[in-house]
Specification:
By secondary structure, this protein is an all-alpha fold. The protein has one domain. The chain is about 75% helix and about 0% strand. The chain is built from 13 helices and no strands.
């Protein structure tokens, strides 16, 4: 029996070329905007940066400190105790930790803290908005691949309900998997460790490492399969028909039980293809970084030197040029993802339709590329 996952690779390439070429500027830019939100074939802002290890405020290290720091960096008195006792009360309040200037205004520190927390809050808010919009953009991209044209606002408004369903499903999926992981961790803690924190140590963790690896692998693979199949199979079914996310999964599950070999073949080969796409994307991304770094770097250097090389205005100009360069890199990165993401999504939909014609979301695309 032929494996559709193998046979449909060439068809996915043909479908991608037929949709994206000849090159049309606005089509690519609109698709780049959409792909930016969904992360495409393995990039974009889906990689959320973590914050931590802020540093040891006031810890100057060995030999540091103010006035009477000891060799070990600990605070020590360098005057007799009776001398200190004779100091005015206001003077005692001015004693500070080593490395912390005593003349730093409290208002300045409070203002700096407020700015830092405001920036962190803004980043979290933007990440949440990005994550929510990604659910709606999945349907915008899929509808564009089905229609072979792109209308962002129209497709977005047409699939608001689907986007909400997908968001709630993904949220529930994460909560369920997290709950399962916590339940397993609690069971191990109470059954294997007796519910005592004293039993948690390097030896117990090492003894249970094999179990942890197996549990993590099972949870990660099962979560990845459900999440991935929802994205590449159920979302197209919801886009092309009136299926909801649960009814779509019901129909997909019936097809998977009827043709497990075909879906397993897709699962395995899609991993290989995504690795290949990720490598290609990384190579093109490095090339784009180098190409953009040259003009923006030279422009920043020229402005820095022309404005005095060190003043606030010079650094502001460098910051503006750097921001523009970063934005240009984001746009180019999204454009790089357009053909790669289009290929992967067409590939999944072609495989789905070949396995089960009743689930086919792109019959017209399939007929056109195979009749050419």
């Amino acid at each position: 029996m032929a494996l559709h996952a193998v046979d449909d690779i060439d068809d996915a390439i043909d479908a991608t070329k037929a949709f994206l070429f000849p090159f049309e500027k606005w089509t690519w830019l609109k698709l780049a905007f959409v792909v930016f939100f969904i992360g495409g074939g393995g990039g974009g802002l889906n990689n959320v940066q973590s914050f931590g290890n802020v540093g040891d405020f006031g810890n100057g290290g060995p030999g540091s400190g103010s006035g009477g720091g000891s060799a070990s960096g600990e605070f020590s008195l360098s005057a007799p105790l009776e001398s200190v006792a004779g100091l005015p009360g206001d003077a005692l309040l001015q004693v500070s930790e080593p490395g912390v200037p005593s003349d730093v205004p409290t208002e300045a520190l409070a203002g700096l803290g407020f700015v830092v927390f405001a920036l962190l809050g803004l980043i979290v808010l933007l990440a949440l908005v990005y994550g929510i919009l990604s659910n709606f953009m999945e349907f915008v991209l899929t509808q564009a691949l089905i229609d072979r044209e792109i209308h962002v606002r129209r497709y977005f408004s047409d699939h608001v309900g689907n986007g909400v369903q997908l968001f709630l499903f993904r949220l529930a999926l994460g909560v369920v998997w997290l709950g399962v992981a916590l339940a397993i961790g609690a069971a191990v803690f109470f059954l294997a460790l007796g519910g005592e924190m004293a039993n948690v140590g390097a030896s117990s963790i090492l003894a249970l490492s094999g179990l942890f690896i197996v549990v993590f692998a099972v949870l990660a693979v099962s979560y990845g399969v459900v999440f991935g199949f929802t994205t590449v199979f159920v979302v197209p079914m919801m886009t092309a028909s009136d299926d909801g996310v649960l009814s779509g999964w019901s129909r997909l599950w019936g097809s998977m039980k009827a043709e497990p070999k075909q879906y397993l073949a897709y699962f395995g080969l899609s991993i290989v293809l995504q690795i290949g796409v990720g490598i290609l994307q990384a190579i093109l991304g490095v090339i784009a970084l180098i190409v953009l770094l040259i003009p923006f770097g030279l422009l920043g250097l020229v402005l820095f030197l022309a404005l005095g090389g060190g003043g606030m205005l010079a650094w502001a100009a460098v910051g503006i040029v750097g921001t523009l360069g970063f934005l240009a890199l984001v746009v180019v990165g999204a454009l790089i993802q357009v053909p790669l993401t289009t290929f992967l999504r067409y590939y999944a939909m072609l495989v789905l339709g070949d396995i089960d014609t009743d689930l086919d979301p792109i019959p017209e695309v399939r007929a056109d590329i195979r009749s050419a």
